[in-house]
Amino acid sequence: MKLDTQKIIELERIIPTIAQGLMEAVPGVEVVLRDDIVILSSHSFPSADINRAYLFHTTPERTEVLIDEVIDFFKARELPTSIMVSPACAPDDLPQRLEARGFIRQETDEAWMVLEGLQKVRVPKIDKSVTVKRCESYADIVTFTEIMAKAYDMPSDWSPYLAQMLEPTLTVPGFEHYLAFVKDVPVGTLTLMRHKQYVTIGSAGVLPEFRGTRTIYNMAVEVIAEAKRAGVEIVVGQTSLGPKFERYLRIGGFKLGFRRTEYKLT
Prior knowledge:
alpha+beta, three-stranded antiparallel sheet, 28% strand, globular
C-alpha cells in the first residue's frame, strides 16, 4: 500500500481529533492540533499517542524554532519530550536535526496497518467461548481498568484512578471501551476510537494467563464486526510488536500503510 503525504496526515490526525473531546471531560488532557505540529499530553490518561509530538511539518529555516517549542512544551509540564517522525514530516533532514539536539532514535518502529473496504470484508466467526461487551456504566469501567491494570502489569492500586479518568469517556463521542469474557469471567480489554469513516483500535490486552491464546484475536474480530455494522469503512491499527504480529495482521486483510520512528530527548 502506497499512501501519499495527505493520506498519512489524515490518518495521524484521527486520534488527536477525537481526543479534542477529552479536554472538557478529562482534566489534564491537552491537545495541540496545528498545521505544523500535533501534540497530545497528559500526566495520566492512558493512550498510545499520549505525550508525543508528531506531524512536525515546517520549513528548514523554522525547524530549530519549532523543536525548541516542542521541548519547552513538555519541559513546562515536567514530561519527557518525544517526537514521532513519519513520511509526512518535513524537512527531510529532521531526523539528523533531532539527533544533533540530543534526541535518541528508538530501536522499534511503529507500524501503521490499514484495513480498507471493511463493508466488503467477510469478518470471520469467533470462538463461541469468548463474548464481548461494550462498557456502558461506571461498574463496567471499574472492571475494564482492573483487567487493564493486570494485562499491562500495572500496580493494582492504579485501577481506581484509571477508572476515574476513563469514566467521562463513556459520553465522549468517538470512544468505545470493550470487555472480553471467557465463561462469564472478564479477561480482556480493548478501546475503539471512531472518526468519520475510520476506527482505530487500542488498549488491547488480556490477563497474563490468557496470553498466547486466541482471546485477543476473538475480541478484536468481534469489535471490528461491530464497527462494520455501524458503517465503518477503514480500520487503522498501530503496533510496535514487530514483523511477526504485522504478518498476523496481513493475514487478516491489513496492509502496511507507513512507519513512524520515535525520537526521545535524553
